[in-house]
Design brief:
Elements: H1 4-8, H2 11-22, E1 24-25, E2 32-36, E3 39-43, H3 52-63, E4 74-78, H4 84-92, E5 97-101, H5 105-115, E6 121-124, E7 127-128, E8 135-137, E9 154-156, E10 158-159, H6 161-167, E11 175-178, H7 184-191, E12 200-202, H8 206-210, H9 220-228
Parallel strand pairs: 4-5, 4-11, 5-6, 7-10, 11-12
Antiparallel strand pairs: 1-2, 2-3, 8-9
Helix pairs in contact: 3-4
Length: 229
């Protein structure tokens, strides 16, 4: 934005303005989308828009800071969200196989539309849970709120970790990403055998506990202790 008036606006309104001019409507699906490199990331509303500069920072400084998957790799992301970081990576390493797990129903639908652009991207909409229990979720305005829900009206079933690996014929994982808003303390013990996983990155959300969203988000110490024990 080169108009000087833009810079006089509060940051919140500058973001809304940028989102408005950089999201488009898909005539086929009716969903909004933003362009990330050569691919679309589908969105429900403009608040889910993520600027290219912000996405670059997230991927370079966090998700792929210590390891950038190469075209021969297999990446599994549990909590894939809308697929922003998957598409960012796909623009750089198109041969990499990326399986994204997302249980929030409307987010999963958007992710399927995003991932259909490449045969190397797969979206999976069931929970990973060795007890194979059924979850009942809602579709909140902010999809990250799913972690604090205890009941809902959308049924989502689950699959055991080993069955998930068999379904996708996964013999090894070069990078396992986990971003599930506090539920990592339940997932990590379910994996049991880590010998076929070369690298793991877990997004802890202690900051959400600090701001009062609930102590179930405080998992940083647990994750570090579990993975180093």
């Amino acid at each position: 934005m080169t108009n000087p008036i833009y810079w006089l606006l509060p940051k919140k309104y500058r973001k809304i303005l940028v989102s408005f001019f950089n999201t488009f409507t898909c005539n086929q699906t009716g969903f909004l989308f933003q362009q990330v490199g050569n691919y679309r990331v589908f969105l429900r509303n403009i608040s889910e828009y993520l600027s290219v500069s912000s996405l670059d920072k997230l991927c370079k400084n966090f998700y792929y800071k210590f390891y950038l998957p190469n075209p021969q790799d297999t990446v599994v992301c549990i909590g894939a969200g809308l697929g922003h970081e998957a598409i960012w990576l796909h623009n750089l390493s198109q041969g990499a196989r990326y399986i994204g797990v997302e249980i929030q129903p409307y987010v999963y639908e958007l992710l399927c539309n995003t991932f259909k652009q490449s045969n190397n991207l797969s979206a999976f909409g069931r929970a990973i849970d060795n007890t194979q229990q059924t979850y009942y979720l809602n579709s909140p305005a902010n999809y990250t709120a799913v972690a604090s829900e205890t009941s809902g009206n959308i049924e989502v079933d689950s699959i055991r970790w080993m069955d998930f690996l068999l379904k996708y014929k996964i013999e090894h994982i070069d990078l396992l990403q986990i971003n599930i808003e506090g539920a990592e303390k339940y997932l990590l013990p379910m994996i049991k055998d880590y010998t076929n996983i070369k690298r793991i990155i877990v997004s802890a959300h202690d900051f959400r506990a600090d701001r009062g969203d609930g102590e179930h988000f405080r998992t940083g110490d647990y994750v570090k202790n579990y993975l180093t024990s």
